[in-house]
Amino acid sequence: PRAARVKIGHLKLHRGSRVRVFGWIHRLRVQSQMTFITLRDGTGYLQVVLKGDLVKTLDALDLVTECSIEATGDLLQLPKGKTAPGGHELVADWWRMIGRAPTGVDTYASLFNAKSDLSVRQTLRHLDLRAETPAAIITIRAAVLSAFRAMYAKHTVIEVTPPCIVQTSVEGGSSLFKFDYYGQEAYLTQSSQLYLETCLPSLGDVFCVQESFRAENSHTRRHLAEYTHLETELAFIDFRDLLEHIETVICGVVDMVLADPIAGKFVQQLNPGFQAPTRPFKRLDYKDAIAFLNEHDIMLQEEDPTLPARSHRIGDDIAEAAERKMTDMMGVPIFLMNFPKRLKAFYMKGIAGDEEYTESVDLLMPNVGEIAGGSMRITDVDELMEGYRRDGIPEEPYHWYTDQRKYGTSEHGGYGLGVERFLAWFLNRWTVRECQLYGRWPGHAAP
Ligand code: 4AD
Ligand code: MG
């Protein structure tokens, strides 16, 4: 009888039966009478044993890693003392070659290995994706996005899909990718926040998972030209509600992924020391952060590199290196709050009675620094006009955003989280570049 086709990840339910599997050869060990294959199909790894006549064919001579094959046979539990993925092996009674792979000087195994320079692997990303660590990261990424969606469903936050092609900026004109749009100027979106805000009166609380684009020429461990931006906007809340919402969602997502049998195990493999954060997160006022930096001699380097480093003053932006040093010293998630208005975007709400500062927050994580940024938004039309003026933003293209304050304004706030930065923290990766399917950073857009 024709054996049932089973994905490798589902084999456990089929032990003792004859099954049919498809996959790619991940590893190969050839002995005189037997060949041991580790087969991979994305859902797991399986040991396939070929012996007898099955290794005496011409095709068998061409077996190398990355060939694709089909095999049938009995799925047997391994005897005590033997190990293989899943605790079982397929003893093949038939197999066929589907797609050969190079056997000469350009075998897959010769292209790169664990010690190869990252840039080699990045150029060969389409093949590097087949290796265990990249595949595990992308698998966890999928579980993380599912977990965020599950958390939002639990809190009745609806998913929307705002456009990528826009004609307004959110985070300042200097990092916009501009292009010609039927004779008009348009941009690739930096943030879907303004669009999310327009959804509140229609749908209530909303979120999106959307690509954002930043034309910053920043060659750092955590800057991408295109990244996956998870953004959320919540109506009729105050700043405290916003902070509590963020920590609830982050902790919920981490717990959910750790409890997932596949993704949870991958997290343990990639980041064995990981400890789930606990609520409440540490709250740190911007002014106290400046004091901390100065107490610990963490200096500010002026943009002009010929100037000597100096200590931080109130009003200074906290640069990436200083932020990371501080976060690593504290060693826990930090809500860095209440930034000066002049450092932040036009839409951020001032603190009542302390208008030079804003109800704003960055979530900082060890090893990465900022993984999310959010704020309460200005609710008053006149205050918003003042915000436009301060940032030199023309009112006209933003008329639709202004309308939100005219037609039933509400106290509201939200945040944006960089999915790759979340993963770099969660999986202890050196750079966010490892956390995208195909990385996009200054100068790099292929494959
Ligand atoms: O701090 P940002 O610029 O804030 C906003 O865009 C707000 N409009 C979000 C909102 O309130 N809805 O970006 C938010 C997050 C950052 O904290 C960071 O994690 C990520 O997006 N991010 C980047 N990730 C990778 N590469 C870049 N160049 C990034 N720029 C921002
Ligand atoms: Mg930010």
Sheet bearing the most strands, described? 8 strands, mixed
- What would you give as the CATH superfamily of the largest domain? Bira Bifunctional Protein, Domain 2
The CATH topology of the largest domain comes to BirA Bifunctional Protein, domain 2
Q: Which hetero ligands occur in this complex?
A: 4-amino-1,4-dioxobutan-2-aminium adenosine-5'-monophosphate, magnesium ion
Question: Average pLDDT, to the nearest integer?
Answer: 96
Shape verdict: elongated
Overall number of structural domains: 2
Q: Count the DSSP helices.
A: 13
Give the class-level CATH name of the largest domain.
Alpha Beta
In CATH terms, what is the architecture of the largest domain?
2-Layer Sandwich
- The amount of beta strand, in percent, is 25-35%
Q: How many beta-strand segments?
A: 19
